[in-house]
C-alpha cells in the first residue's frame, strides 16, 4: 500500500490531476431524491419525487430502484433506513416497508391530517418524533397513535429535527415573508415531549447539524453561517456563505470536519469547523442537491434527476480518510 501511495504521489507531483474525491454513483436513473439515510453498515435508502426510491448495499456507490408507496401518488420528502430491509418514507403519512421496499404500509393515520412530514426521529426507547406541517408529534406505540407536543404557531416554521443526545433535541428552519426571512430554533430536554422556542435573529435556517447537545453549525438563507456553544441560547457569526450556492444540508464527522450540499449542485468541505470551505464537486449540469449523509461511511449526496455522488477517498493520500 505504501508503494501505491508513493507512486500516486509521484504522478500528482508530475502534474497529472489527482483522483476526484467525489464520483457519480451508478444505477440512480432519473430519480429526484429528496433525502438519504443509512442503517448500520453500508445499507442505505433514498426516496424522492413521484414515488421513486433507491437502495444500496455498498455505502452508496451503486444503487437499485424501488417504488416507494406506489399506492399513494406523492413525492416523498423524508426517508429512513433501520436495516437493509426495514425502510421508512414520509410525505402526507409515515410509511414502512419490511421487505426492502417491495410492499409498504402506513403507520397510524397521519395522511388524513393536513401538512407534510418533513423529518422523523427514532428515539432510543422506541418512541417516534416527527414534524408534520407546523407541529411536532410523538408516538409511543410504533406510530399507531400520535400526540401533538408542539402546536403550530404563526411564523414558527421548521423542517429539520436533531437529537444529539437521547433527551436533547432541536427543531430548526424558518419561513420567508415579503418583509424578509424568519428563523426558528426549538429545543427539547425530554426527548421531544415538550419544546421551548429559542431566540434566533439571523433569518431562515436552511440547514443545521449538531455535534453534541450544546454545539451546532447552521446555514441561513442570506446571512451566512452561525455557531452556538450553549445549546442555542446565543449564536455567533462564523463566516459568510461559501461560494457554491444556497446550502440545503449539513453533516459533520467531528467538530472540525464538515460537509455541505448546495442547491446549485455542489458539495463543499471544511476542515476548520466551517470557517473556510473548499468545493469538492460541482455538477456540470447544475442539478440541485437536496440532502447528504455520512452515516454509511463515505459521504453521499443526493439530488435532482438522478444526481447522486459518493465520496471516494481510498488511496488519495495513501492512508484513506
Topology (SSEs and partners):
Elements: H1 2-13, E1 22-24, E2 33-38, E3 44-48, E4 52-56, E5 64-67, E6 78-81, E7 87-90, E8 94-97, E9 105-106, E10 117-122, E11 128-132, E12 135-139, E13 147-150, E14 160-162, E15 169-177, E16 180-188, E17 196-198, E18 205-210, E19 216-220, E20 225-228, E21 236-239, E22 247-252, E23 258-262, E24 266-270, E25 278-282, E26 289-293, E27 300-303, E28 308-311
Antiparallel strand pairs: 1-28, 2-3, 3-4, 4-5, 6-7, 7-8, 8-9, 10-11, 11-12, 12-13, 14-15, 15-16, 16-17, 18-19, 19-20, 20-21, 22-23, 23-24, 24-25, 26-27, 27-28
Structure write-up:
With 321 residues, this protein is mainly beta. The chain is 4% helix and 42% strand. It is built from one helix and 28 strands. It has a four-stranded antiparallel beta sheet with strand order 1-28-27-26, with no helix packed on it. A hairpin with a 3-residue loop joins strand 23 and strand 24. The relative contact order is 0.14. The model is unreliable at 1-16 and 315-321 (pLDDT under 50).
The count of β-strands is 28
Q: Classify the beta-strand content into a percent band.
A: 35-45%
N- to C-terminal separation? 14 Å
Structural class designation: mainly beta
Sequence of secondary-structure elements: HEEEEEEEEEEEEEEEEEEEEEEEEEEEE
Query: Low-confidence spans: pLDDT under 50, at least 5 residues?
Result: 1-16, 315-321
Estimated helix fraction? under 10%
What's the pLDDT, averaged over the residues?
Answer: 92
Shape: globular
* Main pleated sheet: 4 strands, antiparallel
Question: Helix tally?
Answer: 1
Rg, rounded, reads 20 Å
Q: Strand order, biggest sheet?
A: 1-28-27-26
Amino acid at each position: 500500500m505504501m508503494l501505491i501511495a508513493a507512486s500516486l504521489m509521484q504522478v500528482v507531483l508530475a502534474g497529472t490531476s489527482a483522483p476526484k474525491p467525489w464520483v457519480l454513483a451508478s444505477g440512480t436513473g432519473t430519480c429526484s431524491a429528496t433525502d438519504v439515510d443509512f442503517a448500520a453498515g453500508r445499507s442505505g435508502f433514498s426516496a424522492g419525487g413521484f414515488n421513486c426510491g433507491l437502495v444500496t448495499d455498498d455505502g452508496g456507490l451503486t444503487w437499485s430502484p424501488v417504488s416507494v408507496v406506489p399506492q399513494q401518488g406523492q413525492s416523498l420528502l423524508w426517508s429512513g433506513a433501520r436495516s437493509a430491509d426495514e425502510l421508512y418514507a414520509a410525505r402526507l403519512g409515515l410509511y414502512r416497508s419490511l421487505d426492502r421496499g417491495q410492499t409498504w404500509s402506513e403507520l397510524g393515520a397521519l395522511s388524513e391530517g393536513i401538512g407534510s412530514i418533513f423529518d422523523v426521529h427514532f428515539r432510543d426507547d422506541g418512541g417516534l418524533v416527527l414534524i408534520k406541517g407546523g407541529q411536532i408529534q410523538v408516538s409511543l406505540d410504533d406510530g399507531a397513535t400520535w400526540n401533538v407536543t408542539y402546536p403550530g404557531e404563526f411564523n414558527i416554521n421548521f423542517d429539520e429535527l436533531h437529537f444529539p443526545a437521547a433527551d436533547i433535541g432541536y427543531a430548526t428552519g424558518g419561513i420567508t415573508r415579503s418583509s424578509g426571512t424568519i428563523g426558528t430554533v426549538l429545543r427539547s430536554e425530554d426527548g421531544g415531549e415538550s419544546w421551548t422556542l429559542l431566540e434566533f435573529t439571523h433569518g431562515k435556517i436552511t440547514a443545521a447539524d449538531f455535534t453534541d447537545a450544546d454545539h451546532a453549525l447552521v446555514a441561513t438563507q442570506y446571512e451566512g453561517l452561525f455557531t452556538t456553544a450553549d445549546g442555542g441560547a446565543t449564536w455567533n457569526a462564523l463566516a459568510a456563505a461559501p461560494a457554491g450556492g444556497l446550502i440545503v444540508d449539513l453533516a459533520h464527522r467531528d467538530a472540525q470536519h464538515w460537509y455541505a450540499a448546495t442547491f446549485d449542485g455542489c458539495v463543499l468541505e471544511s476542515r476548520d469547523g466551517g470557517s473556510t470551505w473548499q468545493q469538492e464537486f460541482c455538477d456540470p449540469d447544475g442539478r440541485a442537491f437536496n440532502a447528504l449523509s455520512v452515516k454509511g461511511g463515505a459521504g453521499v449526496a443526493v439530488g435532482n434527476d438522478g444526481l447522486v455522488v459518493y465520496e471516494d477517498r481510498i488511496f488519495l493520500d495513501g492512508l484513506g480518510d
